[in-house]
Amino acid sequence: MRIVCLLVVFIQVSFFGFAQNYAVSQISKNLLENANVVVRVYDEVYQVQSKSQASHKRKIVRTLLNSNAKDFSDVVVYYNKLNTIKSFQASMYDADGKLIKKSKNSDVRDFSANTSSLMDDSRVKVISFTITNYPVTIEYEVEYDDRNLLFYPRWVPQPMVAYSVENSRFTISSPSGLPIRYKALNLPEPIISDNKGNATHSWQVTNMAALQLEPFAPYYHERYPVLYTAATYFQVQGYDGDLSTWESFARWNYELNKGRLDLPDNIKSKVDELIAGINNDPEKIKILYNYLQQTTRYISVQLGIGGWQTFDAKYVAERKYGDCKALTNYMMALLAHANIKSYYSLIRAGENEEPFVEDFPHSAFNHVILAIPVKSDTIWLECTSQQVLPGYLGSFTGNRKALLVTENGGKLVNTPSYTAKDNSLSRSIKVTFNEDGTALANIQSLYTGIMQDRLWVMVKTNPNEELRKNLIERLNLPSSIIQSFGYETIADDIPKVLEKAQLQLNKYATITGKRFSIQLNMLSRMNFVPRAVANRTQPIRLRNAFNYTDTIIYTIPAGYSLESKPQNTNIKTEFGDYISDITIKNNQIIYRRTFSMHIGKFGAEKYTDLVNFYSNISKADNARVVLVKQ
Amino acid sequence: MKNIALLLSFFLIPFLVLSQTKTEKFGKIDPKWFEMQKYDKDTSTAAVILFDVGSTSFTITTDGSPRIRHDRHKRIKIFNSTGYDAADFSIPYYRPVNASTKDEVTAIKAVTYHLENGKQVEFKVDNKSIFDEKLSDFYRQKKFTLPNLKEGCIVEVSYTYYTEFISEYVPWYFQSEYPTIYSEYNATMIEVFDYKQFQRGYVRLSSSTKVDRRENLTAGLSVGASTYQWTADHVPAFKDESFITTREDYITKMVFELTATNYPNQGYRPIANNWQQVSKLLMERDRFGLQFTRSGFLKDVASNLKSKNTDSTELAKAIYTYIQDYMTWNQFNSLYVETTLKAAYDKKIGNAADINLLLMVLLREAGFDAKPVILSTRANGKPSIGAPLIQQYNYVLTAIKLENKLVLLDASNKYLAFGRIPKKTLNGTGYLMIEGGVMPVNLMSFAPLDRDVSSAQLTLAKNGIISGKFSNALDGDYGEGFRRANYNKKIEDIEIDLKANAFKDYEISNLELNNLSDINLTPSFNLDISMGEENVDIIYINPMLTEGITKNPFVAESRVYPVDYGAPFERYHVFTLVLPDNYKLDEIPKNINVQTPDRSARFTYSVGMVDNKIQIMSRVNITKSLFNTAEYKDLREFYNQVVAKHQEQIVLKRK
Q1: Rg of the Cα trace of chain A?
Q2: Which entry of A117, A313, B60, B413 is 20 to 30 Å from B369 by CA?
Q3: CB-side exposure of B483: number of CA atoms within 13 Å?
Q4: B-proximal residues of A, 156-175, CB under 8 Å
């Protein structure tokens, strides 16, 4: 399901030259601190010429201070059929700002940038420099002829940590009648000028010190400068659109994709056959979705406008494959033949995506799913997966906005969200030791909600041998043999996967002389403690809610008595809760552990508390119980 | 022509009879394959290759030059949707932007078959759905996928590939990620080109035959030809394992190298048949041997370094350091210089051959008898033994004799000490080029010992807190890794990282780093460490601290390929703890000695107590880098013992 299939323009964060001294000695001290890269000059100019064409120039000069910045020695620019490169060159300067090398045409290498599609026209040009001494300064200029004005550039002056900015500027201009739209976050006001009817907006930031890596940072655009720009009116390969509202953008999509629902007769009769005698819609949806999953697969072909326009239903009917657009459109056609209305819905798919900018209509989507209104509810279908359940979206498309495309335009709606309660992993383990510390363990683990997303697909698509390998890697035990294992997938509204395994654990207990000691937490030890950060600057953002429960019953050989057990732990914090509890009854040790994390935002000053929270959990999780032979 | 056809058919008949049951004509499918529910030799596979047949021969282009023609015919049974990717094809071919070659992929036929009501139904890939993608400035590829896949379907593909690269005779892979029921390669050679062939991998071939005949290449040009046929039945899917060099060393395949040409008007011209010839050939190559004498530009550098160093070892080191600092490696491994040594020197940038051969000629200028050693890197695969196939070699080092000992040098890696060679070069045998031939050099004997030596010297205070010094020295690969990871970092950040990772259960402070920048010395660090709680009656402490091996790296119960560590290694840890008079020792782990039958994996754990001082030493020693599959069980059990011992604790009680 890790499939993204609306083409998104790769945006890098360019210029005109005024002569400048690139000597490293010119960089002010505060920009060198904690930095690997200093952006000396960034000048990007986007000149809209008509609703279907723009000139796009970028000049970037970066000083690479040390070998950690090595990746920037390759200058990489993306392009495609609708966004072609008119010129591209790069130069390298030494620490004194003296020119060492200027690229020739023969230095530019050209590659396909297609990584996952059967075919698309995304390509990349690369100029590589070999760096002999740091610091070094690399300058490049690229100019595009852009004929895809569905996307205007996004400007992020400081896109990563250890990256400081001396001077960065973005300028956009457009003729009258084609007003540009923008949303500026954490940026100064633009300078607006008018040049013969061409309205020009320009933003500039200077002297931005490098950011440090701070775990659990907030979403980037909550704190740092980001500029979104977008067209009002645009045209791509002859298709006119209006981006000023979500509704008008949805209408463009509707017009682009309408009239593609005709099915060949054999498929029509197949649909009739499948739903004959069934008279409730949810059941019909299930049957037809199952038919889609059984008979089609995901294959992506994205050329030109084909990045946004679907192949028609006939194409899929003949080939039994398509990308997200084509498969969604095909599913729509199957449903339409069954008299069920459904809506093509644009979404930004992916785990841990930055929040959606709701108040600024722009082309922000990379995927298409299907929404079917049923009474007061909506059934969502992911049409590119042969495995997932109807109605369940998981971490890939759940919990976010989708743009419904309807005949009257469209609107933003919410997809289902999954809470801490829905996302859990509960384990129940029974361990019986023999005299030499080797144990038999019987493990049952129940994964629910987004915790089971990957496992569900894996269980459904992998041969046993692979599942066995994967299980032993995930369990991460010192030394063990799987005697038997199996999976059950449970098709509830929130899907569940039950994992059962019988293991032999070689010398899980450590026997030293008369003592017998066990690491109590067998499978869910916290091995992560966030790195301490001196002078944390950013607030804390916890993005995911989840919930772990472990119950382990250890049965130990006769003749041992308790010498030492760790204290029970009960930590309640605003970040999450942790309980570990040890009870000893006869020859049984019962270990219970619960750990849950909340979603939330906290002040920077709380960071030490968060580190301590994790550190205390790590300590409690690594505790051992010690028994002595009587 | 007729005669030849007759002759041909005469010789081919035995093959056809033999293989008739295993292959079928395009589109003609025995219904049993539709009925097939699973492959009984690998019941969980999602697809199986029913047959894969390749034939390679020579043709003459219209302008009279020879080219290789390769025909491929492959049929696959798909059991379930997981096997759908077996129906995705991409066939790369050479097509530089600014040159004309006749390399091409043509006559692609690709069909999906279903059985519907007892009848075979076909779905062809239409030409629109065969894409021609430009991969880079040199390569393009044909890409397509089969339509209408469903569980149980059969897909079939055939195509013809032409190449003008006579030296690149098409290799054949008997093995792929899906199991293959029958694989067959028919390789026709003509007497004009002499190829050496060799087989790689772990699957036994079923048959190997050769038939000689004459072949009319074009009107009036009749040449002697031989057709080899190799077949393999029931080839298992190729699966990766940990601790292997490169897939190419393990997968079952047949590869070829052009060793001579024999044009009628030119006679027999060996390209390289034995090491003498290879050596001669290399010495005559412009981008290799011919560079050696063009070192005049280094005269001044040599005499300058010579004037500063009188001792020959010191001089060699100074020359090594000079090239290592002066030159920057462009990340390419190569046996040949890029253009000339002079050009590389002027640019201060070069590939591995540029840098190491510059080192060699500078050493020669300074009076040393320096020579090149050629080899194949681990990722490039193991060269075949005995047959000198020069294309298999992709790297060159410099060798000198110092105090009667051979020293190998690689100046392309800035983190490497004098006399050390990088792990990637530790691959079987290298060849020292000497006058009129070569001398084999066992590269493994130059493997540095990867060594992790740590010591904890701790004292238990009366209040129950344990504190002291922890130090760790890292040699070989361990050291190079540590140096790379921390080279540009501030010491405060290194300490934070140590605290967040290895030392998360301890308090640490006062980190000191040694020899991080001096590559000829072993990098190390030491720090103050403390642990424990105040006033407890019983104290448990694992003497291994952060240095224990906590997990057996060999989780799989059995193994198909040998375990290849790359280099031997050693982990040595000493722990001392001084007790106060209010605590006494209650229990301590026992001594243990574990080794594999040939003693090449050894573990010693020894314990001692003198007065109030506990001393524990652990040494894990892997003295060879290659363990065969028969030794796997012992190696796995060896780790089980180490892991168990490294968990054991010392118990101290308050008096």
Answers
A1: 29
A2: B413
A3: 23
A4: none
Rg (CA), chain B: 31
Q: Which token pair is B455?
A: 């010591």
Question: Inter-chain contact B148–A319, Cβ cutoff 8 Å?
Answer: yes
- Chain A residues whose CB is inside 8 A of the B540 CB are 517, 564, 624, 626
Identify the CA nearest to B562 among candidates B629, B483, B495, B504: B629
How crowded is the C-beta side of A566, counted as CA atoms within 13 Å?
26
Query: What's residue B387's pLDDT?
Result: 64
B555 touching chain A per CB within 8 A? yes
- Where is average pLDDT lowest: A138-147, A193-202, A245-254? A193-202
Chain A residues closer than 8 Å to B133 by CB = 112, 114, 119
Among chain A residues, CA nearest to B112: A319
Residue of B nearest to A530 (CA): B500
**B4 has a pLDDT exceeding 80:** no
Please tell me the distance from the alpha carbon of residue B318 to that of residue B312, in angstroms, as a whole number. Answer: 10
Contact residues on chain B for A123, CB-CB shorter than 8 A: 134
A207 touches chain B (CB under 8 A): no
| Sign of the torsion formed by the C-alpha atoms of A415, A419, A421 and A423 | positive
Taking only residues 51 to 110 of chain B, the set having a beta carbon closer than 8 angstroms to any beta carbon of chain A reads 81-82, 84, 88
Three-state secondary structure readout of B69-118: EEEEEEEEEECCHHHHHHHEEEEEEECCCCCCCCCEEEEEEEEEEEEECC
pTM comes to 0.86
Q: ipTM of the assembly? A: 0.84
Q: What is the CB neighbour count within 10 angstroms for residue A81?
A: 16
Structure tokens at A449: 């909600």
Q: Do A130 and B643 touch (CB under 8 A)?
A: no
Task: Choose among B552, B560, B568, B573: nearest CA to B630.
Answer: B560
For B118: left if phi > 0, alpha if psi spans -120 to 50, otherwise beta; the answer is left
What are the angstrom distances between the C-alpha of A432 and each of A46, A551, A552, B314? 69, 14, 11, 64
Burial of B148: CB neighbours in 10 Å, binned 0-12, 13-18, 19+: buried
Query: Per the structure block, which two tokens stand in for A393?
Result: 């979206």
When the pLDDT of each residue in chain B is averaged and rounded to a whole number, the result is 89
B contacts of A506 (beta carbons < 8 Å): 640, 644
The confidence band for A17, taking pLDDT boundaries of 50, 70 and 90, is: very low
Nearest chain A CA: its distance from B345 CA (Å): 12
Q: Mean pLDDT across chain A, nearest whole number?
A: 91
Q: How far apart are CA A485 and CA A475, in angstroms?
A: 12
Inter-chain contact A111–B136, Cβ cutoff 8 Å?
Answer: yes
